[in-house]
Amino acid sequence: MNLAYPYQYDPRGRTAETDDNTHLRDLIEQVLFTAPGERVMLPDFGCGVAQLVFAPNAFELASATQVLIQSALQRWLGALIVVQNVNVEATDATLSVTVTFRSVQDSQWQVQTFQQGAGGAA
């Protein structure tokens, strides 16, 4: 088992745990929404997608964001997942990132969507 993200307690008052698939989703979410420089001991960690919520909506920005996300996931989680596809959509003040990936330990592909609104993660 793995620690739940964000850190929390289970009903018994112990540190909450999660299964492997949920843990991978949590790790991807951390890479996506952590801005570089936010973590003191890992200043290069993350890709800062949350900053793009207020950026102008353009095809070039979406393409660049997809490359940014895919390279960040490969750099930080490449030993745990294989990323097949990243899709970024900006609608009004909400940024949606859909990641198709699989764990290196199994062959089952997963599709997870992460959203960031102007007020924080949705």
UniProtKB/TrEMBL annotation:
<feature type="domain" description="IraD/Gp25-like">
    <location>
        <begin position="21"/>
        <end position="102"/>
    </location>
</feature>
<dbReference type="InterPro" id="IPR007048">
    <property type="entry name" value="IraD/Gp25-like"/>
</dbReference>
<dbReference type="Pfam" id="PF04965">
    <property type="entry name" value="GPW_gp25"/>
</dbReference>
<protein>
    <recommendedName>
        <fullName>IraD/Gp25-like domain-containing protein</fullName>
    </recommendedName>
</protein>
